[in-house]
Amino acid sequence: MLATEALAAKKQTTAKPAAPAKPSGRAVAAKPSAKPADPRASVANTADNPITEAPPQGSSATRLPPVKAPEPPVDWRTYEVTTTVKLKAVDGQTRLWLPLPLNQDKLFQRTLGHSWNGNPALSSMRRLPDGDLEVFHCEWSDGSDAKLQITTLVTTADRHFDVTKRTVAPEREDILRRNLQASQLIPNDGLAHQLGERVVGRIKDPVAQAKAIYEWVVENAIYDPSLPGAGTGDIRRQLIQGQYGGRSADINGLFVAICRAIGIPARCVYGLRIAPSRLFRSLGLTSDDATFAPHVRAEFYIPGFGWIPVDPSDVRRVVAVEGLSDRDNKFSSLKKVLFGVWEMNWIAFNVGSDVLLPGRQTPVPFLLLPLLELRAGQRDGSDPAGFTYTITARRVEL
């Protein structure tokens, strides 16, 4: 038998190169290609083939660090947040929607309760079926003397991402899929996918991919403090024009769009600054007045590690408002801190997008400011022509 096999091997080595290979029952291994991998090759995942379903082998999404239950924070701070609304020169039926803080307890925020007073004919708290958003909805038959004041007690603790800890329970599949989908203002294909491929390159580890996107946004987006509110959040326009930036909804929304385009679930988190910052003066309040302090943050999801907080917008804000140089050591330190950390001098309202509010026929891209609907149309908090409102926040001891 050995001699027969040796004779067969010799015949194969002496065969003419041009002769066609005869079929045999043995499988022949393909020779490895000597051509080097193309550094511009497409990333493995997309919004249709997300990292949650096909993580690269050996990446942070497939390695199994020790399973540790999340440890609740020790240092909690409690705040009383009061919103006061007064309508002016408004006749006829009027409706108002106010965003409320997260209705689900988190390791970084808990809502302790609400109280309100005013003169609406109808009022109610509404929670969307998927839990992404809770609102206070009220109506007046005649808005000429409409008044409302609502107070929320909320407690917060700083949020940190620890790469050595693996979360116990995975996120629901429907939530992950929703945070891979495109919305009115945040695309997940076309120009967003092309940009994501260019930014990520040959990086395969999903945490490293998200960090590359974060650093690219920090280096290329421009913060514009002259824009009202938190910006428009129109990421499609940014991608088409090739001009990146705006305010927090625009910059952090860009991060979300690129993550979704390469298959990493991500979402904007809409909220409000409620206290001074320990990092930089421009990242917090300087008084109890929080009326002009809406702020949008972002987070992305990695299997095994859960939702990871980021805020590239605040890095650019410090550069624009405080004149910090990109080459300053403080800039480098802040950039490292805000990948994985939220300083909770801020409260989260919701993660809703394309929100269909109670009583409305068409959705709004997101709800961050009080929204008023009159006979003449709708107005939000960035357009005070139809109403005035104030938001105050102060720390309290329980």
**Helix/strand order:** HEEEEEEEHHHEHEHEEEHHEEEEE
Q: Spatial order of the strands in the main sheet?
A: 4-5-2-15-16
Mean pLDDT equals: 85
* N-C termini distance: 88 Å
The CATH architecture name of the largest domain reads Roll
Principal-axes geometry comes out as globular
Please name the defining characteristics of this protein.
single chain, 398 residues, alpha+beta, Immunoglobulin-like, C8orf32 fold, five-stranded antiparallel β-sheet, four-stranded antiparallel β-sheet, disordered N terminus
Walk me through this protein's architecture:
By secondary structure, the protein is of the alpha+beta class. It folds into two domains: 124 residues, Immunoglobulin-like, CATH 2.60.40; 177 residues, C8orf32 fold (Roll). Helix content is 21%, strand content 26%. It has a five-stranded antiparallel beta sheet with strand order 4-5-2-15-16, with no helix packed on it. A four-stranded antiparallel beta sheet has the order 3-6-1-17, with no helix packed on it. Strand 4 and strand 5 form a beta hairpin. Helix 3 crosses helix 6, helix 4 runs antiparallel to helix 6 and helix 4 runs parallel beside helix 7. The protein is globular. The N terminus is likely disordered.
